Amino acid sequence: MAENRNEEVPERVRAIEAATGLPWQVIVDAFEAAGGEALTHGRLAEAIHPVIAERIGNAGWWAQGATVAYEQQIGRRVAGQSSRGDFQGSATRTLPAETSDRAELRDRAGAAVQAAAEAGSGLGGLRPDGEPRTSDTPKRLYWRCGLSDGAKIQVSVEEKAPGGAARGGTGGAAAAAEAGSARAAGTSRALLALTVTGLATAAQREAVRTDLKRVLAEL
Q1: What is the DSSP secondary-structure string of 38-51?
Q2: Can you give the pTM of this predicted structure?
C-alpha cells in the first residue's frame, strides 16, 4: 500500500470521492494493483480510467485529477505541481448567471484579472504579456492571456448543473458548497474558474492563489 509521504492530504481527494462515489482508498488500491509507483503519470491515468468511467462524466479529466492526487500522496509531486514540474494555481466561485449573461461574466472577470495583474505587484509578481483573447466551446467560455516569465492565465465560465457540479464535471467540493444559496433561490448558476499555469515555485503558486481569490471576491 502506498505510504502517504506528503504531510498534506492531496487537495483533490475530497472532490474526487464526491464525484466518483468511491472512497479514496479504493482508488489508491486500484493504482497499486496496476503497478503504483513503478508507472509513469500517463500509465497511471490509463489504469484508473476504467475504474471511474462508468461512475462519472468526463472520466478522462477525473482520471488525470486522481492520478495527480495519488502522485502527491506518494511524494512524486507536491500540491499544485504538474507532471512537467511547474506549478499552477486556481480559484473558483459560483455566481448567478443566465445563459445570456455568461459571456458578460467571462469578459468582466477577464478585465478584473488583467487589472489585477497590471496593478501593484501583479498576480503573484506576474504581469500581462500580450493581448488577451477569447474563445467559446459548447460547454465553456474562455478568456486567456500570457503573463511574464512564460506563465499563462485562463478564465473559464460554464453552466452549473442543478446538483452542484459543473455540467462538464470539473466542479470541486468547494465550488459545490458555495452554490448552496443559489440553488435554494432557484437561480441559474455559472462556475467561474481562474487558473494560472507555468508557475516556477510552490510559493509563487500560493501568492497567485491569494490574488485570484481576491479578484473573485470583488466580482
Answers
A1: GS-HHHHHHHHHHH
A2: 0.65
